[in-house]
Write a structure and sequence with these properties.
Ribonuclease HI, Chain A; Bifunctional carbon monoxide dehydrogenase/acetyl-coa synthase(codh/acs), Chain M, domain 3; 24% helix; four-stranded mixed β-sheet
Length: 465
């Protein structure tokens, strides 16, 4: 199938990472503001079947180690094609690109990030035309009802810009259509395992009010995908019995999680970041991260270039969030889920969100309650946790009321779950390291150590004698 391509193409390369030192070029990614991938259904006379066009510099003329803008436009035609399938077919760009030896594709839509390795470049993969050939052949193989297909790559910044704007309006129209439906109105959810090559135990559950973490697949997209390929990577999940309507626990979702994760994940709360939170792969658009010092959540999106209010950048927290694990307080999310009325429903929703980037807050303004909008701090307001505490008090954020409920001056939080990557304890002369510890407490009290007091622990955890 791929005799004309100078590198191998196959499932064995899915999940391969290309590190910065090993990359020939980077397309899109965090340093490029405008990038996109878009599939559009067209009439037959609008598609030149098999055509591959490159507008702007090709890989062979790109400078080694540099980042470039990228737009991928796939236009398809066929009597059985519907616009509901555009998002589903679009998401396959991620899967197909990762079949290529030495080619890495992450994320989706307006957040794409691709890298080509030096090794594959030396083998002759020096043109986007090869990527186009792979996409066309795999689309034909998996979707035989695609009768015509053409692929256009845009790397010229001036040409990417207007198409990026158009793509964003198309994404928004798709998302808006899905907002009118509630989880209670349907008896079927959908699952997606496209990212299990990167995170084998990740189980993505798509409901009307909880978009896929990547932000690319809505409930309507899932229904369309499962309809044309019931045994494919996007499939139906029977909801089953609702065990907890607030946390969002369903018997059908739990059964599917256990099956798809090979027993690693047995329970999922769809609307909570604690207990049994929804797993994450690595393609999530953002992270909701718990800030125990203020008993609230921060939100950071993938493109945020600075450190967050807790002193950590997105990349560091992504390591704690990804991989198909259930880590309390680190929750992979999509922008569209943040527009849902069920966003962190069990944890207080936006009444519990205390910090997010200014651009994100402005983008979500129509969906954040007016009573809390101005009380959510941004990077323009605070830089540290002490500054955040002061800001929340001054602006009367609802989370401040939880502080009093947690125990006044001595108290910190009440009835929450805390986790730690490594928690060191000292007992009887031995150090005990609890890895990925999960501690549940009805109440946690923090008191300052009084130097010299017999029996009190010092900062290292050993007792003073």
């Amino acid at each position: 199938m791929f005799e004309d391509i100078p590198v191998e193409v196959g499932l064995v390369y899915e999940g391969e990472r290309v590190r910065k030192d090993d990359m020939q070029v980077e397309l899109g990614g965090p340093h490029i503001a405008e990038k996109f991938e878009l599939v559009q259904v067209k009439s037959g006379d609008e598609v030149n079947d098999g055509a591959i066009s490159i507008i702007g510099p090709d890989i062979s003329t790109m400078e080694e180690g540099k980042s470039y803008p990228i737009g991928i436009l796939v236009e398809i035609a066929g009597p059985r094609l519907e616009r509901d399938l555009e998002g589903v077919i679009e998401r396959r760009i991620h899967e197909y690109s990762n079949y290529i030896e030495g080619f890495m594709h992450l994320n989706q839509r307006y957040d794409v990030w691709m890298r080509l390795s030096k090794k594959s470049f030396r083998k002759g993969f020096n043109s986007l035309r090869y990527l186009g050939l792979v996409l066309i052949e795999l689309y034909r193989n998996d979707f035989p009802f695609i009768e015509k297909i053409q692929v256009t790559f845009i790397t010229d910044p001036e040409k990417v810009r207007p198409l990026y704007t158009k793509a964003m309006s198309i994404y928004e129209a798709r998302d808006e259509r899905a907002r009118g439906l509630t989880d209670e109105e349907v008896d079927t959810f959908y699952g997606c395992d496209l990212c299990q090559s990167f995170a084998p135990t990740h189980v993505c559950v798509i409901t009307p009010q909880r978009y896929a973490n990547c932000g690319a697949i809505s409930w309507f997209d899932g229904r369309a995908a499962a309809g044309i390929d019931p045994d494919g990577p996007i499939y139906a999940i029977a909801k089953g019995e609702c065990l907890d309507p607030v946390k969002g626990e369903y018997t059908g979702v739990n059964e599917n999680a256990k099956k798809k994760s090979m027993g690693e994940v047995n329970r999922i709360y769809l609307y909570s970041a604690f207990g049994y939170p929804h797993t994450s792969c690595g393609c999530f658009e953002g992270i909701a991260f718990f800030i125990p010092e203020v008993d609230g959540f921060g939100i950071v999106m993938r493109g945020f270039p600075d450190v967050t209010v807790n002193g950590l950048p997105f990349s560091t927290m992504a390591d704690s969030t990804a991989g198909g694990r259930q880590i309390d307080g680190f929750h992979g999310i999509s922008i569209e889920y943040m527009r849902s009325k069920k966003f962190l429903q069990a944890d207080g929703g936006y009444d519990r969100v205390v910090w997010m980037p200014r651009e994100t807050r402005e983008r979500l303004k129509p969906f954040i309650p007016g009573s809390v909008y101005d009380a959510i701090a941004t990077e323009s307001d605070v830089r540290t946790i002490p500054e955040l505490k002061k800001f929340l008090l001054e602006h009367g954020h609802p989370v401040v009321q939880r502080w009093a409920a947690g125990g006044g001056e001595e108290g910190v939080m009440a009835g929450e779950v805390f986790t730690a990557g490594e928690l060191p304890l000292n007992a009887g002369g031995f150090w005990i390291i609890l890895k990925n510890a999960r501690i549940t407490a009805d109440r946690v009290i923090v008191k300052p150590v009084r130097p010299g007091k017999i029996g009190e622990a010092d900062v290292h955890g050993t007792k003073r004698q």
